[in-house]
Amino acid sequence: MSLIETARAVRENAHAPYSKFKVGAAVQAASGTVYVGCNVENVAYPEGTCAEGGAIAAMIAGGDTRIAAIAVIADSPQPVSPCGGCRQKIAEFADGDVVVTLATTDGTVLETTVGKLLPGSFDAAYMSRA
Ligand code: THU
After folding, report:
1. pLDDT of 29-43, one tens digit each?
2. Closest by CA position to 39, among listed 64, 77, 76, 66
3. Smallest CA separation from ligand 1 atom 14, residue
4. What is d(CA 71, CA 101) in angstroms, rounded to the nearest whole number?
5. pTM score above 0.85
6. Distances from the Cα of 113 to the Cαs of 40, 63, 94, 95, in angstroms?
7. Structure confidence at residue 66 as a pLDDT band (50, 70, 90)
8. What domains lie within the chain, and their CATH numbers?
9. Which residue's CA is the closest to the ligand 1 atom numbered 1?
10. Residues in contact with ligand 1 (CB, 6 Å cut-off)
């Protein structure tokens, strides 16, 4: 199954009763293992978590540390755009040239990269004097 089809499948499990906007994400780690995540909302709205964050948390819990590819899908008019927080979370574990596949449930696909999604990102090098 392609990464986007894996993301499409896990999207069905999203808990999104407040926004009604279900999102699925699939991360392929450098080892080849694929990890999935979906958004999990909460009645205390700020406590909700994004699909990408869930997939990354699963990857770390599974013992992998580097993202080789990532796909995100939602029922949106345009391929869904990861939020700023998720861009930073992805950048923590991915090189700038890692491909990010963004898709709509009706089949529109946009391929971009981590570096294009978050240019000039804050990284550990800025903390070299700490
Ligand atoms: N959401 C994600 O899971 N990932 C994104 O890239 C965009 C937004 C979720 C958060 C919230 O549960 C819902 O979509 C509406 O913002």
Report:
1. 999 999 999 999 999
2. 76
3. 21
4. 4
5. yes
6. 25, 24, 10, 9
7. very high
8. 3-127 (3.40.140.10)
9. 50
10. 16, 19, 21, 23, 39, 41, 48, 50-52, 72, 80, 82-83, 86
